[in-house]
């Protein structure tokens, strides 16, 4: 009995660094922001900071952030699902899957200044591909409305880590589709399209929708890539919050806490949706 208790204590001891890290750098800062969002600089309770979010610049920043996050999540889900289906259920060689999963694991964490620099150097105003198309083919992307330092430019940049993240998350769900389900559908006379529309897709839909919510939260909280790519020229919530931390805008620290609190609420809801739908999908895929 004593040895068992010591073993359990040792196992829990291994979690101590994680618990300390989570408390110091996640829980306590979040609580500090939440409390600060409902206090005046003098420490009195108030709703004025939350009411202060209803200004044109802050509303617009939230709206642009939601648009960028939603579109990058939607496109990331669609493209990532197609790639994952091809390497999991398609006729591609099995040796393709390993490198693709490995690359996805690396690319899903590739963000910030290196990612922004890579896109600026490739398809920016003076990027490699931009200049090649202009000099060799006479195609000026600017004439066609392309601008990397814009909302759609940021969406395209975000796809670099959104698509791999979708591949990593949806691949196990695709692996969970049982071969017996397809065989049963074929025996009953269903075509491949009917199988996907009436069997596979309804089963995968919670996973797809949940992953889209996760990708939305992933893009909504991204700040380093946006700042490195567009600087202050694009008004999105993370950049506005970053400017507030530096003391450039808003002028009220507690209003900055309210701005961060709003971001926490939005990302928290998105992650809750992901968790709930993930649990539901796993019931079918076990």
TrEMBL record:
Q: Among its keywords, does the record have Cytoplasm?
A: no
Q: ABC transmembrane type-1 domain location, by residue?
A: 62-274
Signal sequence annotation: none
GO CC terms, sorted:
plasma membrane
Concerning InterPro entries, the annotation shows: MetI-like, MetI-like_sf
Grouped into one coarse class, the protein's main location is membrane
Superkingdom, taxonomy of origin: Bacteria
Which keywords does this Swiss-Prot/TrEMBL entry list?
Answer: Cell membrane, Membrane, Transmembrane, Transmembrane helix, Transport
The record's section on SUPFAM superfamilies has:
MetI-like (SSF161098)
- What CDD domains does this protein's entry cite? TM_PBP2
Gene Ontology annotations of biological process type: transmembrane transport
**Has keyword Methyltransferase?**
no
Where does the protein end up?
A: Cell membrane
Bilayer topology annotation: Multi-pass membrane protein
Q: Where are the transmembrane segments?
A: 12-35, 68-89, 110-132, 152-174, 195-216, 222-243, 255-277
Give the UniProt family note: Belongs to the binding-protein-dependent transport system permease family. CysTW subfamily.
What name goes with this protein? Sulfate/thiosulfate transporter subunit
What organism is listed for this UniProt entry?
A: Flavimaricola marinus
């Amino acid at each position: 009995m004593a040895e068992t208790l010591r073993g359990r204590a040792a196992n829990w001891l291994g979690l101590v660094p994680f618990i300390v890290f989570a408390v110091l750098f996640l829980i306590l800062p979040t609580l500090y922001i939440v409390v600060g969002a409902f206090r005046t600089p003098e420490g009195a309770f108030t709703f004025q900071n939350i009411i202060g979010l209803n200004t044109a610049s802050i509303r617009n920043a939230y709206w642009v952030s939601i648009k960028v996050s939603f579109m990058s999540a939607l496109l990331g889900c669609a493209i990532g699902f197609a790639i994952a289906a091809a390497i999991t259920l398609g006729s591609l060689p099995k040796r393709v899957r390993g490198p693709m999963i490995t690359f996805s694991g690396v690319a899903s964490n590739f963000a910030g200044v290196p990612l922004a620099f890579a896109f600026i150097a490739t398809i920016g105003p003076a990027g490699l591909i931009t200049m090649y198309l202009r000099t060799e083919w006479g195609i000026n992307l600017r004439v066609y409305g392309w601008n990397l330092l814009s909302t759609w430019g940021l969406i395209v940049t975000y796809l670099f880590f959104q698509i791999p993240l979708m591949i990593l998350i949806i691949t196990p769900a695709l692996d969970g589709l049982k071969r017996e389900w397809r065989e049963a559908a074929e025996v009953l006379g269903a075509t491949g399209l009917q199988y996907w529309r009436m069997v596979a897709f309804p089963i995968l839909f919670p996973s797809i929708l949940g992953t889209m919510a996760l990708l939305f939260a992933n893009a909504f909280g991204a700040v380093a890539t946006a700042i490195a790519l567009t600087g202050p020229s694009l008004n999105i919530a993370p950049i506005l919050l970053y400017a507030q931390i530096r003391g450039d805008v808003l002028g009220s620290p507690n209003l900055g806490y309210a701005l961060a609190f709003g971001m926490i609420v939005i990302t928290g809801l998105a992650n809750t949706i992901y968790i709930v739908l993930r649990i539901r999908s796993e019931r079918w895929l076990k």
